[in-house]
Amino acid sequence: MQTKVALVAGPTGLVGRELVLALLKSNQHKQVIALSRRPLGPEFSSFGDRLLVRSLPTGNEALHADEFYCALGTTLKRAGSQQAFRSVDYDLVLDLAKRCQAGGTRRMILVSALGASPESALFYSRVKGETERDIKKLNFPELAIYQPSFL
């Protein structure tokens, strides 16, 4: 029986897109909520009301889901500056995780990057590592962090 609700941040990226499709095709979730700034592609049109697309939240409201999948991220080039990159890959990720936790989410899955470390000399890897470190401090009952190679 489908009883779980999954929340996915970053559904238009390479990993996020495949993740949303996999969650919908698995039939283990009654609903998948995709948080996105951009519309999803036509391949998602056949899932009806099981897929809900919402804008990234503003304000401080809690987010309610059983599972939070975070595949949110940008590139330094696309962000335009280190500060803008950090605001997405650290600030926004942490904010969404805290909102999910406040809404009762028990399981978080974070897509990070190979080589992530808060002590890294590379800015990208350092921010990813700081994000991982601070997500761990939130003490979700279930947390999985995946570190794929460069995408």
From TrEMBL:
Tree of life domain: Bacteria
Q: What is this protein called?
A: NAD(P)-binding domain-containing protein
